[in-house]
Each structure stands twice: as C-alpha cells, then as structure tokens.
Amino acid sequence: MIQMKNVYKKYPNGIVALNGMNVEIKQGEFVYIVGPSGAGKSTFIKMMYREESPTSGQMLVNGVDLAKIKRKNVPLLRRQIGVVFQDFKLLPRLNVYENVAFALEVIEEKPEAIRKRVLEVLDLVGLKHKARMFPRELSGGEQQRISVARSIVNTPKVVIADEPTGNLDPETSWDIMNLFERINASGTTILMATHNREIVNTMRHRVIAIEGGLIARDEVGGDYGYEG
C-alpha cells in the first residue's frame, strides 16, 4: 500500500526533514507514527497525500509514484486517500450531510448513490440524526466524527490521520480511536501520527518512530517509547 525507498526531503531553507527513509506498509495494517517534535513526522504524513513531495527517492502510495505524479493528477490521488486532521477542517457553511457528501459530489457520483453512502457513514459514526446541523452546532468530538465520516465516504484503501485526537478530551479520544479500530477491521489501512502515549500503549499496533528524518524504531505491537 505504501512504500518509500531512499526518500529525502530537503526544504529551501536547508532543513533536511527526511534523510533517506525506507519503509513498507501493507494493506490492512494499523500503524502509529511517533517521535519528538521536529523529527520529520509531519513531513512524512504530508508526503502520503502529496501536500509535500520528495526531493529524491521513490514513494509509492497505492501503486502511484508520488515523486513523479503530475500536479494535475494530485486531486485524483487524494480521492483515493482519506485524511483526518487535528483541527477537523470542516466547511462551516455546509451542514453535516453536505460536508460528507461534498467528496462524492466532486467526482459526480449519482445523487441516489450519494444519499445512500452518506447516510451509511453517518450511521457508522453515530451522527445520522445530526445530518442537518452545522459544524458550529457540534462538539469537538462530533466534528471529528464527521471528519472521519468524510474521510471514508469514498471507501479509500488508506486513511491518514494527523493527530486526530489532539484537540479532544480523553473520553472522546477513545471514542474516535474505537471508530478507527472498526474502520481498520473492515480492511482499510490506517496510518496515524500521534503524541498520545496512552492510546499507543493501550491499543497496540505497529509503531514507527521517526527521529532525525530516519526510522529509529519499527515494532509490531510496540509502545510509545518517549517520556511525557
């Protein structure tokens, strides 16, 4: 599903964020990305959906080489990848239903199919009854659930989550994690950057620790491994 071969990322200011990274993530895995601030985690995650591009090396996501993809084809790539952000990034002028449906409307899916699929994913995240409400009327946890629903409405093979529980209280964080567990159980690959030690140490999955732009540790069922 994801393969990086000798990937480097050097920014114009001279900072080397990734320093020859090699990793392979298979379909259906659940992987935590951990590491200290400034280690290269954000760059690693952003590369997955082509927010950043490699300076050199080969990077494949679902068979597409992101080092060679043309800019005009990036939106098509992103339709195949679900992304969940720490700050939700919902469209404030659209209600819950419209926020989730938008991802299907841009690919010109038929209205009947859109309605069926949107209601399915809203039911999955437990918020079908709030379909006509707006983001400002929802709690932070509810907004993140809608963000998750939006990320999976296209039935992507991989969901990339960047600190998805960072703005949530502990109880809500566990609810979101249980939701990710259910999505992963259906066969979707989950790649999650997180600083949440308790979640990583409790819900054990593969852990990739990044330090200095390199993979310092790669363990199946690993722990968080950092203080604080």
Automatic annotation (TrEMBL):
Molecular function as annotated in GO: ATP binding; ATP hydrolysis activity; transmembrane transporter activity
Span of domain ABC transporter: 2-227
Cell compartment(s), UniProt: Cell membrane
InterPro entries: AAA+_ATPase (IPR003593), ABC_transporter-like_ATP-bd (IPR003439), ABC_transporter-like_CS (IPR017871), ABC_transpr_LolD-like (IPR015854), Cell_div_FtsE (IPR005286), P-loop_NTPase (IPR027417)
Gene Ontology CC terms, in alphabetical order: plasma membrane
GO biological-process terms attached to the record: cell division
Organism superkingdom: Bacteria
Gene3D superfamilies associated with the record: P-loop containing nucleotide triphosphate hydrolases
SMART domains: AAA
Keywords, ordered alphabetically: ATP-binding, Cell cycle, Cell division, Cell membrane, Membrane, Nucleotide-binding, Transport
Topology relative to the membrane: Peripheral membrane protein
Similarity comment: Belongs to the ABC transporter superfamily.
Xref: NCBIfam families: FtsE (TIGR02673)
Cited function: Part of the ABC transporter FtsEX involved in cellular division.
Assembly information from the UniProt record: Homodimer. Forms a membrane-associated complex with FtsX.
Record's protein name: Cell division ATP-binding protein FtsE
Organism of provenance: Planococcus halotolerans
